[in-house]
Amino acid sequence: MFSNLEQEAKDVCNNICDVVHNASYIINGKDEAIFQIETDLTETLKIKLSSQGFELLQKINNNKSAILQNVPLYESIDAILSENSEIYKKNFEKQLTKQLLGLNNQTENLN
């Protein structure tokens, strides 16, 4: 996501610089002023980009913190699921054993 933001800012910067550079051919005798405007715009966009990038990194770090704080919760959920899995497995084995014993009794009665 950050690289897209960076590329977008670079594209905007290049477009603005192209427009300003083209304008320098139109305005005779103003090359130095145009160059300064180009430089100022480039620097402004770099600052804007770095502040947006910094905000983005802060958001990512904040989310990391939230995720790390919830790790015990995830571990608890995992433990509950594992325990339930074992309980389910034992219940299934009991049910299966009952059914097999029932079938065994029925076959003995048939004999």
TrEMBL record:
Domain GSKIP: 6-101
SUPFAM superfamilies per UniProt: Hypothetical protein c14orf129, hspc210 (SSF103107)
Protein name: Gsk3b-interacting protein
InterPro entries to which the protein is assigned, alphabetical: GSKIP_dom, GSKIP_dom_sf
Pfam families listed in its UniProt record: GSKIP_dom
